[in-house]
Amino acid sequence: MNRGSKFIFGIMTVGIFFMLSLAVGAAVIEKAEEKKDDIPKFFVPKPPPSGSFPCSKCHTYRAIDKKKRKLELSHTGITLKHAEEQRWCYDCHEGDKLKLQNGQLIDFDKSYLLCGQCHGTIFRDWKAGIHGKRTGLWEGEKVYLLCVSCHDPHQPKYKPIEPKEPPMKPADIKLKK
Amino acid sequence: MSKKIRNNPLGISMDRRMFLKSAAAGIAAASALPVSAADAFDINAFLQKHFREMTEDEIKKVIGRLEKEASLEWKKDVRISAAKATPGVKFGYGLDLSRCIGCRKCVYACVSENNQSRNPQVHWISVLKFKKGEKWIDLENSEKYYNPKEVPEKDSFYMPVQCQQCEDSPCVKACPTQATWKEPDGIVVIDYNWCIGCRYCMAACPYGARRFNWSKPNVPANELNTETHYLGNRPRYKGVVEKCTFCIQRTRAGKYPACVEVCPVGARKFGNLLDPKSEIRYLIENKRVFRLKEDLNTNPKFYYFFAT
């Protein structure tokens, strides 16, 4: 089994769980099955290191507090602006892992599975290389950017950036003799 | 491909190479020029055949000469590839207008990858800004010099325009010297050694995608990209036309174009139109796509699309 099909197999196993909870899930799996050979090898870079890993470093010493609140002792940079009415941290986190809706725990570098649960269409586009970005070879190995490389999972709206300078107006272009 | 690349411009029934050879030999003889030592006037450059008429051997010789010239001039090891199109490949490009934020990173990645002149400035990509809701396909109503602190701006969207790699390219038809043509993988290329700088192609291009070198391209030597292709980003001359080639030096080596790799929002897609499993085919089949000025029947291989 090559890495690509292993990945698909992985998705499908996870997918079987989705199916129980999500109708969308079913569509994704069907598509994934059709496209079994289509998905190239995945080389998803690891998420950037952060002082927060591993979570258990601190959390083994803390009782879980499920109360929705503004965090002040730690994680002060994290404010949830992502369907925050409906959920809170522990809908996605558990221990040192990420948690899917069915309770299954996954590693941080598989976070796309988490996002894919609710954003099925985009997830499908992402696998096909349409949403998000791949680099590498157009007909060979590709590196995928993770959803979280572009979207902060806690405030996923894409942040505006500074543009590069505008082109010179023709009148400002000087010919060097 | 037709072997007779162009008609004898003087109507003399002698093939061009023969004609030039005898003419040049005549000049050389008349003025007693030491042909071998003449570097200002290189007889080999003058006699260079049309790229598509050259044999492998001849191409190798020409490339060797050009590499030597360029390496001397830039004091760097400039490599010029002549990699051919791969059979079964026709390149297509996709640009997601629902994602592009107008940051212009593609513009400058293109400049450094493709050795465009910095000053005078040559850009192969123009990013146009439109007000949402306006009759926007009308390119004249766009803004090219926008310069806010941050993009995207409210109520605006952006459309980068570059060579659309038309299947039925008006520029190719307009060229009087056949210095520009469409390769089998669909890339419209220019032979800078055959371009005479008449700029008919620029007038013919409905997309304003071609650029003219009014002076010798000005590229800082330390920024020169030395991985080049004969039909692509090799250093150009004063008085020749240039444009996007889908980064022929990269894409014929299997890589994505530089603009695809740099785009921070992943709006740019690229692949083989003949491969049903490519991302370009996926988007054509699954998304709303359109091509620019479709009514002109230029049949571009550059697809704008909306992912949402």
Task: Give a quick rundown of the structure.
With 177 residues, chain A is mainly alpha-helical. Chain A is built from six helices and five strands.
Q: What is this structure's SSE topology?
A:
The complex is a heterodimer of chains A (177) and B (308).
Chain A: H1 3-21, H2 23-34, H3 56-59, E1 93-94, E2 97-99, E3 105-106, H4 111-118, H5 120-127, E4 134-136, E5 142-144, H6 147-150
Helix pairs in contact in A: 1-2, 2-5, 4-5
Chain B: H1 16-31, H2 43-47, H3 56-74, E1 79-81, E2 91-96, H4 105-113, E3 126-131, E4 156-161, H5 170-174, E5 180-182, E6 188-190, H6 200-204, E7 211-212, E8 227-229, E9 241-242, H7 248-251, H8 258-262, E10 268-272, H9 279-286, E11 288-290, E12 302-306
Describe this structure as you would to a colleague:
The complex is a heterodimer of chains A (177) and B (308). Chain A is mainly alpha-helical. Chain A has 2 domains: 8-36; 39-159, no CATH class. Chain A is built from 6 helices and 5 strands, in the order H-H-H-E-E-E-H-H-E-E-H. Chain A has a 3-stranded antiparallel beta sheet, with helices on one face. Chain A has a two-stranded antiparallel sheet with strand order 4-5. In chain A, a hairpin with a 2-residue loop joins strand 1 and strand 2 (97-99). In chain A, helix 1 (3-21) packs antiparallel against helix 2, helix 2 runs parallel beside helix 5 and helix 4 (111-118) crosses helix 5. Chain A is extended, with a radius of gyration of 20 Å. In chain A, 19% of the residues are buried. Mean pLDDT of chain A is 78; it is low at 6-40. With 308 residues, chain B is an alpha+beta fold. Chain B has 2 domains: 1-47, no CATH class; 83-308, Alpha-Beta Plaits (2-Layer Sandwich). In chain B, strands 10-2-12-11 form a 4-stranded mixed beta sheet. In chain B, strands 1-8 form a two-stranded parallel ribbon. A two-stranded antiparallel ribbon of chain B has the order 3-4. Mean pLDDT of chain B is 88; it is low at 1-39. Classes of the chains: A mainly alpha (177), B alpha+beta (308). The A-B interface holds A 35, 37-38, 125, 128-140, 145, 150, 158, 160-169, 173-176 and B 94, 96, 101-105, 107-108, 119-121, 123, 126, 144-152, 214-215, 218, 251, 254-256, 260-261, 263-266, 269-272, 275, 277-279, 282-283, 286-287, 307.
